[in-house]
Amino acid sequence: MAGADSSFDCIVVGSGNAGSCAALAASDAGLERVLIIDKCPAEWAGGNGYFTAGAHRTVHGGLADILPIVHNVDPVQAQHTDVEPYTHEQFIADIMRLGNGRSDPELVRALVNNSRAAVQWLSERVHVPFTLSFNRQAYLVNGRQRFWGGMALSTQDGGKGLIAAHHKALQDAGVQTWFDTPAVELVLEDDAIAGVIVRKAGKLAKLTAPAVILASGGYEASTALRAKYLGEQWVNAKVRGTPYNTGDGIALATAVGAALTGDFAGCHSTCWDANAPSDTGDRTLSNQFTKSGYPLGLMLNAHGRRFVDEGEDFRNYTYAKFGRAILMQPGGYAFQVWDSRVEYADDVVRKIWADTVEQLAGKLEEEGLENRCQFVDTVVSYNDAVRRFQAENASLRWDPAIKDGLSTQSNGFSLEIPKTNWALPIEQGPFLAVKVACGITFTFGGLAIDPDTAGILSETTGKPIKGMYCTGELVGGLFYSNYPGGSGLTAGAVFGRKAGEQAAKLTK
Length: 508
Ligand SMILES: Cc1cc2nc3c(=O)[nH]c(=O)nc-3n(C[C@H](O)[C@H](O)[C@H](O)COP(=O)(O)OP(=O)(O)OC[C@H]3O[C@@H](n4cnc5c(N)ncnc54)[C@H](O)[C@@H]3O)c2cc1C
Hints:
Layout: E1 10-13, H1 17-28, E2 34-37, H2 63-66, H3 75-79, E3 81-82, H4 88-98, H5 105-124, E4 130-132, H6 134-137, E5 138-141, E6 144-147, E7 153-155, H7 158-173, E8 176-178, E9 183-189, E10 192-200, E11 203-208, E12 212-214, H8 223-230, E13 238-239, H9 248-255, E14 260-261, E15 267-273, E16 298-301, H10 315-327, E17 333-338, E18 352-354, H11 357-365, H12 372-392, E19 431-443, E20 446-447, E21 455-457, E22 464-470, H13 487-507
Parallel strand pairs: 1-2, 1-12, 2-8, 3-6, 12-22, 13-19
Antiparallel strand pairs: 4-7, 5-6, 9-10, 10-11, 14-20, 15-19, 16-17, 17-19, 18-19, 21-22
Helix pairs in contact: 1-7, 1-13, 4-5, 5-13, 11-12
The structure holds flavin-adenine dinucleotide.
The site of flavin-adenine dinucleotide (FAD) has 42 residues, from helix 1, strand 19 and helix 13.
């Protein structure tokens, strides 16, 4: 291979959200020959981005600030909708709090400070069809839609809508994408990037470029790397998205001296349908295997015991760590349980119904419940704790749109594992259970980058390696242990734009 087909201004490795943002930014900044390569076949385009709910967390000034970029709110609806502003300080505090203070403060600041501009760019330049996320992030309270948890933006048709918008913008900009083309080696000459060796149609080929942007995701789809970094139990986690994110970027970059950083023992993992496929997401059902209704119910393990505080915080501050909690239970699964007061709309999951808690426990034995009596006892003592709390705090009202303080911990009685908010007795049949497992979303450890330029840092000098940039899941140091929902797509856009712009600056 030689000539026009092998020489580029910038090569982006990975066709997901982060890589797409980087490629478009590079093209918009004046680079003519921008190429995206992806190891997946064309029908898997978009990486994990395709599987998302399209949730984007950003700093914003409240409803009036974000109304101009959303497409699903008419003026009458707007009058009945409450979206509180979400400030820089809140976004920073959320990442730092959930990461137990370990996140790199400069990286976090770069993400947060550029989040609103990135979302505006996605809307105006990429034409991402943003919506207000009524069904996931708001509750109807006293006739008003109240948004909660610091996040309000989603995209029409979720990740499918997001990736379709990227695809069109890239095509219009003349950016090519080669599928079935894995990067297998990075070429460094005189301490600067010079190109990428790829496998194309079964043959190795050298592509040259003065700038390479790595956006090839984490290692969540590699069973071996999950076992190595996260622990042996993680071989049993179910892959929620693309099966092609197998840690290649880490191997490619460290082979040319890149520095690693971040939480290699940590990942984003959620409550996921126990009947979902194990090693890959499903392109049709995508995010619909998510089972995040637990704040309004209970989670019990195979021994019939609770193991987390289901009401510890709003769902989008706990959902990314509860997958791990489920994986650590006997058998690696659990049962989510509600009574008839909670509506559960999802049609994908297999629902198990019963008229009494005892009957429900009996049915769950067929699904792996090993201690039917303990299951019933757990629900009974939970109900008892809730009633005693209510008796002591008669003025408190159940409200899912705020942390309502309705708990299981009263002066007279408290549970070993509390439920801190939204605790209602599980008492009105019919009762509903679903079986959940751990779904792994993406990994937190990755490459060290310069927060201002997204340049990949050298292990030996601590300085950026000339021409090498990184964005998306592959960036390390941002998230530790846990994660505020909707931050991943925004981070990919923020550092993708930086990477693309810097690549153009360098090349020109
Ligand atoms: C089910 C699900 C729901 C989610 N929902 C949300 C949400 O609502 N909001 C949010 O913010 N985040 C969400 N996420 C997380 C989000 O998907 C990621 O943060 C984001 O998409 C990462 O983007 P990326 O471009 O870095 O990686 P990806 O989109 O995964 O793209 C990486 C690409 O690199 C390719 N690749 C890998 N190795 C090579 C190689 N050697 N050569 C060439 N190409 C390679 C892969 O094939 C893949 O296409 C969700 C994830 C999943 C799985």
